[in-house]
Specification:
The structure is a single chain. The protein starts with a helix and ends with a strand. The chain is mainly beta. It contains one helix and ten strands.
Protein backbone atom coordinates (compact mmCIF):
# COMPACT_ATOMS: atom_id res chain seq x y z
CA UNK A 1 0.00 0.00 0.00
CA UNK A 2 1.37 3.41 -0.98
CA UNK A 3 1.06 6.37 1.38
CA UNK A 4 1.83 9.92 0.29
CA UNK A 5 4.55 11.87 2.05
CA UNK A 6 1.94 14.02 3.85
CA UNK A 7 0.07 10.92 5.08
CA UNK A 8 3.30 9.47 6.46
CA UNK A 9 4.10 12.74 8.25
CA UNK A 10 0.58 12.90 9.75
CA UNK A 11 0.90 9.31 10.99
CA UNK A 12 4.24 10.04 12.61
CA UNK A 13 3.14 13.31 14.25
CA UNK A 14 -0.11 11.87 15.61
CA UNK A 15 1.63 8.70 16.75
CA UNK A 16 4.35 10.64 18.59
CA UNK A 17 1.86 13.00 20.25
CA UNK A 18 -0.35 10.14 21.35
CA UNK A 19 2.21 7.50 22.30
CA UNK A 20 4.35 9.92 24.32
CA UNK A 21 1.72 9.78 27.08
CA UNK A 22 0.71 6.15 26.80
CA UNK A 23 0.26 5.68 30.57
CA UNK A 24 -2.14 8.54 31.21
CA UNK A 25 -5.90 8.43 30.89
CA UNK A 26 -6.08 11.45 28.57
CA UNK A 27 -3.80 12.51 25.76
CA UNK A 28 -3.35 15.66 23.81
CA UNK A 29 -2.70 16.33 20.14
CA UNK A 30 -1.47 19.90 20.21
CA UNK A 31 -3.95 21.41 22.66
CA UNK A 32 -6.64 18.81 21.99
CA UNK A 33 -7.49 16.24 24.62
CA UNK A 34 -8.13 12.73 23.28
CA UNK A 35 -10.70 10.64 25.09
CA UNK A 36 -8.79 7.36 25.35
CA UNK A 37 -5.25 6.10 25.81
CA UNK A 38 -4.66 5.79 22.08
CA UNK A 39 -6.60 5.74 18.84
CA UNK A 40 -7.28 2.27 17.46
CA UNK A 41 -6.77 3.61 13.95
CA UNK A 42 -5.69 6.80 12.18
CA UNK A 43 -6.55 7.50 8.54
CA UNK A 44 -6.05 10.61 6.43
CA UNK A 45 -8.28 12.16 3.80
CA UNK A 46 -7.25 15.42 2.12
CA UNK A 47 -6.43 17.79 5.04
CA UNK A 48 -8.20 15.63 7.62
CA UNK A 49 -6.93 13.02 10.05
CA UNK A 50 -9.65 10.67 11.20
CA UNK A 51 -9.16 8.66 14.37
CA UNK A 52 -11.13 5.71 15.57
CA UNK A 53 -11.06 5.37 19.34
CA UNK A 54 -12.77 2.79 21.54
CA UNK A 55 -16.12 4.62 21.54
CA UNK A 56 -15.66 7.63 19.26
CA UNK A 57 -14.93 8.68 15.71
CA UNK A 58 -12.94 11.93 15.63
CA UNK A 59 -12.00 14.28 12.81
CA UNK A 60 -9.00 16.63 12.97
CA UNK A 61 -7.98 19.32 10.51
CA UNK A 62 -4.26 18.75 9.92
CA UNK A 63 -3.65 21.35 7.22
CA UNK A 64 -1.12 22.80 9.70
CA UNK A 65 0.65 19.62 10.80
CA UNK A 66 2.12 21.26 13.90
CA UNK A 67 -1.27 22.48 15.10
CA UNK A 68 -4.07 19.93 14.47
CA UNK A 69 -7.59 21.18 15.20
CA UNK A 70 -10.44 18.96 16.38
CA UNK A 71 -13.36 19.42 13.95
CA UNK A 72 -15.73 16.92 15.53
CA UNK A 73 -16.02 14.11 18.04
CA UNK A 74 -18.73 11.58 17.18
CA UNK A 75 -19.50 9.25 20.14
CA UNK A 76 -20.71 5.65 19.83
CA UNK A 77 -22.06 3.38 22.56
CA UNK A 78 -20.71 0.30 20.75
CA UNK A 79 -17.06 -0.73 20.89
CA UNK A 80 -15.48 0.35 17.60
CA UNK A 81 -13.13 -2.11 15.90
CA UNK A 82 -11.99 -0.89 12.50
CA UNK A 83 -12.59 1.68 9.81
CA UNK A 84 -12.09 2.07 6.06
CA UNK A 85 -12.41 5.38 4.22
CA UNK A 86 -13.76 5.88 0.71
CA UNK A 87 -14.41 9.38 -0.60
CA UNK A 88 -16.28 11.21 2.20
CA UNK A 89 -17.49 8.01 3.85
CA UNK A 90 -16.15 5.99 6.76
CA UNK A 91 -17.13 2.32 6.93
CA UNK A 92 -16.93 1.30 10.59
CA UNK A 93 -17.30 -2.09 12.25
CA UNK A 94 -18.22 -2.36 15.92
CA UNK A 95 -19.38 -4.97 18.40
CA UNK A 96 -21.00 -5.72 21.71
CA UNK A 97 -19.10 -8.72 23.06
CA UNK A 98 -21.54 -9.32 25.93
CA UNK A 99 -24.53 -9.62 23.61
CA UNK A 100 -22.58 -11.19 20.70
CA UNK A 101 -23.83 -8.55 18.28
CA UNK A 102 -21.88 -7.04 15.41
CA UNK A 103 -22.58 -3.56 14.06
CA UNK A 104 -21.69 -1.85 10.80
CA UNK A 105 -21.96 1.88 10.22
CA UNK A 106 -21.44 4.19 7.27
CA UNK A 107 -20.62 7.72 8.38
CA UNK A 108 -20.76 10.64 5.95
CA UNK A 109 -18.11 13.18 6.91
CA UNK A 110 -18.50 15.51 3.90
CA UNK A 111 -19.16 18.17 6.55
CA UNK A 112 -16.27 17.43 8.97
CA UNK A 113 -17.81 19.58 11.71
CA UNK A 114 -21.04 17.57 11.62
CA UNK A 115 -20.61 13.95 10.46
CA UNK A 116 -23.72 11.79 10.26
CA UNK A 117 -24.55 8.09 10.21
CA UNK A 118 -26.24 7.35 6.90
CA UNK A 119 -26.45 3.57 7.33
CA UNK A 120 -26.49 1.26 10.33
CA UNK A 121 -26.72 -2.53 10.43
CA UNK A 122 -26.79 -4.92 13.36
CA UNK A 123 -26.41 -8.72 13.23
CA UNK A 124 -29.20 -8.81 15.80
CA UNK A 125 -31.84 -7.54 13.33
Amino acid sequence: MYYSFKTKVVFIILFLFISSKCFSVYHRIGGIKLTSEYPRQIETFEDLAITLERHSFNIYNVSDLCNPILKSEFPFTEKLNSMTLHDNFAFISACDYDLHIGYYFIVDFSNPSNPSIIYEYSTNT
